[in-house]
Structure formats: structure tokens, C-alpha cells
Amino acid sequence: MPALKLLEQHADRIDKLVLFYPAIYPTATYDKHYVTEVPAVLRPPFAYRQNDTIGLLEKFTGKLLVIKGQYDGLDPSEFGKPPGTAAGQVEIDGHTSYSPIPKEVIDMVMNAVPNDRRALLEVAGCDHAMSQWMRNHPREADKLVEQVVDFLRS
Description:
globular; alpha/beta; two-stranded antiparallel ribbon
């Protein structure tokens, strides 16, 4: 979210943007305390649609790289959750995964930038806890970092 808000003042100076498991927050969260007030604003289905950041991304003329875990941004309906929400904590193949980013949020971010200027890296076996995954998978993490560097140099 903070990276997307940078586009508000600096879009003309940003050629490439890398977003890790991007979240989109409703504008109503901006003046709220993150721990005590933001969760209530995020709770209603599709609350993230009331944002001012997707419009910023649609005007962005640079390249976008979105990085997300395989088990984040999951379709909530596949896990018995209502549309417009996140899948949350789910059981997949005997493992618990955490998917707090709604699938539609990832779709909105990706669809805001034309195909020829966007890329998605999906990290196999990873959920929202990417930093923990990187610590536990240093070789794969190094490869991921190399892909980010390649994107930034392209």
C-alpha cells in the first residue's frame, strides 16, 4: 500500500514498481489506528473496492512486478468464505496456509496495468508469510531476489 501511494506524488519519476503480496486499503482506513480501528473497516466484503490507489496504478506508465505466494490471494469461495473477503487461514494438502489478501485484490492490481507492462511471480509453496518462507528457503529466496534484480535492470 505505501508503494502504491508513492505514485500519487512521484509517478512521473517511477519507471518500475515491485509489489510483494499487495494489499489495497479503503480510503476510510487512512486516518484510523491500524491495530484497533482498521480491521473493522476491512471486514465488510469488497471494502477494498473503496480505494484511491487502483486509479493511481491505472495511470502508471511504468512496469509492474507483483510477487505473491502460491497460497496467498486465494479464491475465498473455494474455502467456504463469502465473495469479497480473504480466504484467511486454510488447510491445503495437510498444511495450514494464511491468505489474508483477497483474490480480487490481486486481480485488480494486475488488471490496472496492461499485459505488456506487468509481470506476476508466484512463489511455490509460500503463503502470505514470504519473509519467513525466504528465511526457510535461502536458495529459492536467492533466485527470487535475482528475478527482482533482473526486472529492475530490464
